[in-house]
Amino acid sequence: MKNDLHTQAKDFIARRRVEGLTLEDERWLGAHLAECECCAAEHRQLNESLSAMRAMHLDLPPNLASRAQFRVRMRAEELREKEPTRKFVWAIAAVSWALGVATAPWVWHGVEWVGQATGAPRILLQAGFVMWWSVPPLIAAWAALSDKRVAQPEQPE
Ligand SMILES: [Zn+2]
């Protein structure tokens, strides 16, 4: 009989969250929890895990997201302040050159094909090949430098 009371209490604790209890059942559960440490502990535990879950769902993600955003912004500003534009230009040039070297064999094949198709002098083809290889980083560097020139008037001199 005593066991049935605890089973009934646990059933009420679970049902209370889902569908709610009648006023009478609520009162009965309150009385049981007041005198039964075992069921009261279970009730507390359920409440704690539920509020922990709620806290995780509602509070943690926005907090984490804004913190991550803040850090990214800080890092971006740090980079903008500390790293000279020249370094940035060199990075762009290095990437362009690396891409140029990586794709050079295919491009050279293309240039040779154009040479065979058009009968253009080899020196012209070679010049075109060199141009293709060196112009992109020059354009990138020029773009980065002119970007800096535009951004500079904002800073006090
Ligand atoms: Zn109990």
Quick take:
With 157 residues, this protein is an all-alpha fold.
Overview features:
single chain; 157 residues; mainly alpha
What does this 3D model show about the protein?
With 157 residues, this protein is mainly α. It folds into 2 domains: 2-61; 83-154, no CATH class. Helices cover 89% and strands 0% of the residues. It has 6 helices and no strands. It has helices at residues 2-18, 23-35, 37-58, 60-82, 85-118, 122-151. Helix 2 (23-35) packs across helix 3 (37-58) and helix 5 (85-118) packs antiparallel against helix 6 (122-151). The radius of gyration is 36 Å and the shape is rod-shaped. The termini are far apart. 4% of the residues are buried. The mean pLDDT is 76. It binds zinc ion. Zinc ion is lined by residues 6, 9, 32, 36, 38-39.
Structural class: mainly alpha
Mean pLDDT: 76
Bound molecules: zinc ion
* SS elements, strand count: 0
**How many domains, as an integer?**
2
Largest sheet: none
Strand-helix topology:
Blueprint: H1 2-18, H2 23-35, H3 37-58, H4 60-82, H5 85-118, H6 122-151
Bound molecules: zinc ion (ZN).
Zinc ion (ZN) binds at residues 6, 9, 32, 36, 38-39.
